[in-house]
Write a structure and sequence with these properties.
This protein has 610 residues and is an alpha+beta fold. It has a domain at 1-101 and 284-299 and 560-610: Pnp Oxidase, Chain A. The protein is built from 15 helices and 38 strands. It has a 15-stranded mixed sheet that branches. It has a 5-stranded mixed sheet with strand order 22-24-25-26-23. The chain is globular.
């Protein structure tokens, strides 16, 4: 066995041995690492030439990292070696490879995405409504869809539909007279590329771009045009670059490989990666041990055995978006249909209601369509006075009703116990809700105030006359001096604490209503005559969809340890066949001595149940 540190062959301590652990990152988030490797220093010129006379205070205060290669017959790993302890006689180190090395590196920990230069509305071309709503017009950078400021109620990027052909109802959109400028929503893929550029890394996202459903994911976070805050970054959360990629992995169901040496960032979908691995058959089993894991034992950390949920939101639609509790509580009154078409046909008469007692009717029940795996309730949108009555008799109204899908963004529930572990997604479906009948459904956004100590922030609309007075009375200072004068920030500088997402490929309906990003994969026509299946879904809980299905279902209560003979360390992410049964591996441990890797390996496995 040979170990190279900074391209120099290191001398091993006589009789040295160490363990190399190859982990399945779906359990621990790590890949390969060693336990302590000890190198002699006293009387060893080879190692002194590598490690030098390292200042002991520096070693204690910060990370000292070297490039490292471990070579032994069929085993080769390249990564980093970090010093954990040093004395006059020896140096103790740990080797890290792959995701283990990536987790250890803190390059991106103090760089925040809302402080980066990620483009702005000045980078995109303003034009007619039809153009700015078309993602190809600005090269899939950003679109300027209409949206409602939830605080003011004003519709931003508002356009009116002008009918050119009264017979065919064909027409065109033109900007509303009160719409002075556009605020833009950038595409998620574009912003991710810009983050890479801003930190000086090359991004390879071809696997992402190949899947059209993911290509059109839109970041809905934006700010009013009148705020004069056109930078895309300013509408993003105060996440570090490291946090951004970690959270994005959970949302996309994928993995980013960050190579700090080559300064590259690659992406692949986890399901695709695992599907490409060749299964491993273990035949030379030396010893085995199975145990029933109890509550007192260490928990199984397999990610796919945890509930996957969206982070809870405060907007008014969230009670409809995510309500597992309600669906569970109302199972006694579910009316089930085999198809969405059947459900619509059976309930179309409820699209208007005269206010009469509907006790026992479907209006007061939970409706379910199997082909879309979705639940629905009926809710009132508006009412119109039909007859005004004097005296004690109430007025008579006609109600416009909506067939509302519910719990589309409920969790992917693997374990429904109260104390089940959860993985939270902080890229959450945006709120799309009804406005007035003329405009239809629209994107709604709410945002908070910015850091009060940040002189470059703004809290709302600025009257032009007031802005003129400010400019006339102020000695302008460049941005660095403004930031310095404002002082150090005392809280997170952000308008949004999460990223709201939708899906927008530019396909417009012909009803003359405002366009909106899609979040729900079932959209009901206003008259309940039909429905639209959007071919992308943000859902976690649809049993017919594959993109969020559990890759491998294991029994986390049954842990098996096998000792086996092998010349190489099998990939722990592969499916293992052992004695005719399928297993998922948590980790494999190999022992190395100065003579190389022992053929006796030990693995921890869980039986696959799917």
């Amino acid at each position: 066995m040979q170990i190279y540190v900074d391209n120099k062959l290191a001398a091993l301590k006589k009789g040295t041995s160490f363990e190399y652990v190859s982990e399945n990152r779906l359990f621990s988030g790590s890949d390969g690492y060693t336990l302590t490797i000890t190198f002699p220093l006293r009387g060893c010129p080879e190692n002194i030439a590598i490690f030098g006379h390292i200042n002991r205070a520096d070693v204690a205060a910060q990370k000292v990292i070297f490039d490292c290669e471990i070579r032994d017959k069929g085993f080769y790993k390249f990564g980093s070696i970090t010093i954990t302890e040093i004395s006059e006689t020896e140096v103790k180190t740990q080797f890290l490879e792959g995701r283990s090395e990536q987790n250890f590196d803190d390059t991106f920990d103090k760089i925040f995405i809302n402080d980066l230069e990620l483009g702005s509305r000045a980078d995109v071309t303003d034009s007619t409504p039809s153009n700015v709503w078309n993602p190809t017009f600005n090269g899939y950078k950003a679109v300027a869809l209409p949206w409602v400021n939830d605080y003011s109620g004003n519709i931003q990027n508002l356009a009116d539909y002008i009918v050119d052909d009264a017979v065919q109802k064909r027409g065109h959109y033109q900007w509303n007279a009160e719409c002075y400028g556009r605020s833009w929503q950038p595409y998620l893929l574009y912003i991710t590329r810009r983050i890479c550029e801003a930190v000086g890394y090359a991004g390879n996202f071809s696997k992402w771009e190949e899947k059209e459903e993911y290509k059109y994911l839109l970041i809905c976070n934006t700010l009013p045009y009148a705020w004069e805050t056109g930078s895309f970054a300013r509408a993003l959360p105060h996440w570090s670059v490291a946090e951004y990629f970690e959270k994005l992995e959970i949302f996309l169901g994928g993995e980013f490989r960050i190579d700090h040496r080559a300064r590259t960032i690659d992406f692949a979908f986890t399901a695709d990666t695992l599907a490409s691995l060749t299964p491993v058959a273990l035949s030379d089993i030396v010893d085995e041990h199975s145990v029933e894991v109890t509550v007192e034992d260490e928990k199984c950390e397999y990610q796919e055995a945890k509930n996957l949920v969206y982070k809870e939101c405060e907007h008014d639609m969230w009670k409809y978006y995510s309500c597992d509790w309600f669906v569970k509580a109302w199972q006694h009154s579910v009316v089930r249909y085999s198809s969405m078409s059947e459900l619509l046909a059976a309930n179309r008469n409820f699209r208007t209601w005269n206010g009469s007692n509907q006790r026992g009717s479907n209006m007061n029940k939970l409706l379910y369509a199997e082909d879309v795996d979705a639940y629905f309730i009926i809710r009132s949108l508006s009412k119109t006075l039909v007859r005004k009555n004097d005296g004690w008799m109430p007025n008579v109204y006609s109600y416009k009703m909506e067939l509302r899908p519910i719990n589309l963004f409920g969790g992917r529930i693997v374990n429904d116990s109260d104390d089940a572990d959860e993985i939270e997604i902080e890229f959450v479906p945006a709120r799309v809700d009804e406005t007035e009948e003329k405009y239809g459904r629209c994107l709604f956004l709410s945002f908070s105030g910015y850091d009060e100590n940040d002189s470059t922030g703004t809290s709302g609309f600025r009257d032009p006359a007031e802005r003129k007075k400010e400019i006339d009375a102020t000695l302008y200072q460049p941005m660095p001096l403004q930031s310095l004068a404002a002082g150090e920030r005392t809280k997170k500088a952000e308008y949004y604490d999460r990223i709201y997402v939708g899906w927008w490929d530019g396909a417009m309906s012909s009803d003359g209503k405002l366009p909106h990003p899609y979040v729900e994969d079932v959209e009901i026509a206003e008259d309940w005559s039909n429905y639209r299946n959007v071919h992308f879904s943000l859902r976690l809980n649809n049993r017919w969809l594959s993109h969020r299905r559990v890759i491998h279902t294991i029994n986390p209560k049954k842990k098996a340890t096998f000792k086996f003979l092998s010349d190489t360390i099998p990939n722990p992410r592969a499916v293992f066949y052992i004695k005719g049964k399928k297993y998922l591996c948590e980790k494999i441990t190999a022992t190395f001595s100065e003579n190389g890797m022992s053929q006796l390996l030990k693995g921890v496995f869980y039986p696959i149940e799917d």
